[in-house]
Amino acid sequence: MSAAAHIPSSTKGEGGAQEVRAPAGSRWMAYLLLLPGLLWLGVFFVLPLVQLGAVSLQSRWPDFPGYYYPDLNWHNYVQALTDYGPHFARSFVYAGLATLFAFVLAYPLAYAMAFKAGRWRGIMMICIIAPFFTSFILRTFAWAQILSDEGWVADVLNALHLLPGGQIINTPIAVVAGLTYNFLPFMVLPIYASLERADPRVIEAGGDLYANGLTTFRTVTLPMSMPGVLAGTLLTFIPAAGDFVNMELLGPQRGKMVGNVINDQFLAIPGGYPIAAALSFTLMAAILVMVFLYVRRFGTEELV
Amino acid sequence: MGDLRDAHGDLQLESVTKRFGDFVAVDGLDLEVPRGSFFALLGPSGCGKTTTLRMIAGLEQPTAGRVLIGDTDLTGSRPYERPVNTVFQSYALFPHLSVHDNVAFGPKRRKAKDADTRAGEALELVQMADFAARKPAQLSGGQQQRVALARALVNRPEVLLLDEPLGALDLKLRREMQVELKRIQTEVGLTFIHVTHDQEEAMTMADTVAVMNRGHIEQMGPPEELYDLPRTRFVANFVGQANMGPGTVEGTDGDYLVADVYGTKVKVKRSRSQVQEGSLLFGVRPEKVQVSRTQPEGGGNDVMGVVKDVSFLGVATAYLVEMPSGTIWSCYEQNLDVEPIDLRPGDQVWLRWNPAHAFAVAPEGALQEAAR
Lengths: 304, 372
Fold this sequence. Notes:
Low-confidence stretches of chain A: 1-18
Number of strands of chain A: 2
Shape of chain A: globular
Shape of chain B: elongated
Strand order of the largest sheet of chain A: 1-2
Number of helices of chain B: 9
Oligomer: heterodimer
Number of strands of chain B: 20
Order of helices and strands of chain B: EEEHEEEHHHEHEHEEHHEEEEEEEEEEH
Helix content of chain A: 55-70%
Distance between the termini of chain A: 10 Å
Distance between the termini of chain B: 45 Å
Largest sheet of chain B: 6 strands, mixed
CATH architecture of the largest domain in chain A: Orthogonal Bundle
Structural class of chain A: mainly alpha
Largest sheet of chain A: 2 strands, antiparallel
Radius of gyration of chain B: 24 Å
Order of helices and strands of chain A: HEEHHHHHHHHHHH
CATH topology of the largest domain in chain A: MetI-like fold
Mean pLDDT of chain A: 87
Mean pLDDT of chain B: 89
Strand content of chain A: under 5%
Number of domains of chain A: 2
Radius of gyration of chain A: 24 Å
């Protein structure tokens, strides 16, 4: 993903810079520094992942509900996809919409913070980070109240006859709104970081070279902030696609997302473990493929 | 607003003022730059030269006054409406575009059909055609500088602005680029306005140099003239070195004023003095002062001093000499002989100069300087 990463940003003199080999000692030091992180990942990520993969292929004991034996039961995956295909689709559509809305809200905000905020920049930054001081669940509960039938949002929208069902809570709209809200900072911060790093003179150069404000934005500012946009969309879409809290607290009873199905299969349905594991693996694979295609299409050389 | 881009002629600033809050960056500046000339705005940092440049580019709007090219008033118009392009100090190349696309950016915005051909030609002109496919991050500072120049030149603007374009380069490269810039300007025949704090750079390249200080122009003219006959204390000190001393006019002798400087009678041509009576600031350029062990014949315009420091520079030897007044003068002697003059610190010497080479400026500047 980072073809340009090997090229020093300011090569002095003509021609490319020689690659400097680190002495052997410092290479060992590098591995040593990597060790704790690798161990942690091995124990808490790789091992559980292998375990999950094994569970996803297990079969039930016919005579003992809730008990399994190791197997290579690919039928779990077939079942996961046939029974829960619509849930996957819903997850990706809602996560996609939330990512789109978050982008639409975040870009102007990040732009204002980077170029227009002046001394208000710090305060704006605090406002964006402040929600992290309370729990994600609590904030979503707060949204359930705000969007509830007795809340002012529903009242106002109903007064304007903008709610066909008369209700905003327990609808997909509330879920997408909740997802958008919860992942907005993950969109704002990377975009802000890439805009803030941009040299204002480069944007001025666009104007100097006959591009009006809109053209300069389209041809200079936006492309320069693409690494941030890319990071922001990934940081929003990936967790939103797997999220189940927003659906649980704000969404309808029927028409859940895949995260809710996995949650239910694991916790509520006896003998649901293999299906839940198969769903998890499928979700992970689907997201990986989508991210890969997305980065291939829009990726810049210096991603994050 | 397309007609603004067809503006043609000399660049004119009419009593242009720019205030940032209480701070007056540019103070009632009048300036006329003939079409096709290489013009330098020279001054220390904070003197308003970059602000002036940005007002010509349209990146800042003047608080008062007008900016014109020929008869077309550009005041109030946006940068993209003006036939003016800038080579930014930091080059400001588009990092996401290749060298070629950077250069083709301007022509493409103007919907030129031959944008790619022109970009190729511009890169040829700055000898960067081989690097067209690279990204700016893959270039050295000097190469980026050339690309920035090509990106501005390709548009054939009426006025090309250069904001300290060589500041980030090392000395050798800077010298090369000075020659190169001058060559390109002569070749394309556009008006170049070059902002710099480096007097040597300004003098090497420009036909006309305007010395700016605290928001206004102190003096403007060909480099030789600024050096030979500075009209203010600031110019005398900023453009080259000057040996100076405060004095009082005591009378006249033909074409000359006679002044008393710390008890020494000195002469300066009336036409070379900005003050005809009262107190003045007398000055001579270091290379106009000759050093000798014995009092020269003829007398007048000579002073005895004590050598403080001798530095051998190859083509010349530089002396620092303490005058009776306590001020230190510097002098250059060309090393015409195989054996240089054998002087040591502590030796007594006579300094002499041709009175026709002396100049005098008003001391007010001195007071202002001191009050700062």
